[in-house]
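Sample intake sheet
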Amino acid sequence: MSSSLYFDNASTSYPKPSCVINAMVNYFHHIGANTGRSGYKKAQEIDRIVFETRERIAKLIGVKDSSCLIFTSNATEGLNLVLLGLITHGEVVTSSVEHNSVMRVLRFLQQERNVKVKITKCSREGILSPSDLKKNLSPHTTAIVLTAVSNVLGTMLPLSEVGEIAQQYSIPFIVDGAQGVGKIPIDVEKMGIDAIAFSGHKGVLGPQGIGCVYISKKLNLPPLKYGGTGSFSDKDVQPDFLPDKYESGTLNTIGIVGLNEGVKYVMKVGIEEIRRRGRELRNYLWKELEAIPEVILYGPPSTDVPIVSFTIHGFTPSFISYLLDHHYNIMVRPGLHCSPHTHKTIGTFPTGTVRVSLGIFNTKEEINLFISSLTQIITHHT
């Protein structure tokens, strides 16, 4: 049995940088206070960290005003806040490689608010043509919603080009950044993005249970939830200023502490360097898998995000995953990856694929061990 190999970073990044773990332990040992709820020294310290985290994220994704960054429990909550608050009627245009964190909200809007959902078909590699998307727009379009990167294929969607189209027609542009933030360059101002949500536990290497959503002030959405914010406590109506308007209840301060350090680590390494490493690992893995006759690959031959999906003749994805885990201690993810439309697009529905998603700490040597293990499985079970 090989040493443990973790190849499921699109689900959650692992391992975490030591600075993330140390900061969270330090918070429990030496701070422990709530943010925005008092004025003693420890409360002020966590207030400072929360503000610092907003400022750091703003720098990472090109946000001018960090008060437009709202802390959530994950990307899904951020997407719900934006989509449920923004889309009340009309039509919404999206792609055929969206995660259910987008699609299930849109189907709810379709059923409950009679919103028409127009899905722009991507190629079998998950590539979206901006001109195809443009054809789906109409005077009734109230939003364009796209993922930054396919969580199944690693395909990057043309955010800048779609952002230009959205601005041309004055249509809000919403992005699911779960697989993009921390992995590829994203600048909301330059790309014309009006809202983008992401989770702290994926590309920015933080813990689970914390996320963030950027909401442009021009959207002026209603809150998803109402309650105490620590501000204007003399009033029993919701504050109307950012970020308090959208941050009711106790924030996940320990999660923010970890998120802060994760973003700091990503920025220290540099997005371009992370992108370069991702492209190098992904292309190497693709080339090695391509050399195995029994393997069928899905997605583009080259991309900057190290996600690869494949199937093997005569094997179900679940069986491959089971054998890799139980006999070689290699962790991958089989199935539909919460993205049935993607698998219908690439022709792997309903069984799905085996997904290998690499992270910043994976190496070519680990890929070699994986390829060797996979080859042994094919040899011994055929």
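Comment: The chain has a mean pLDDT of 97. Residues 51 and 66 are 8 Å apart (CA to CA).
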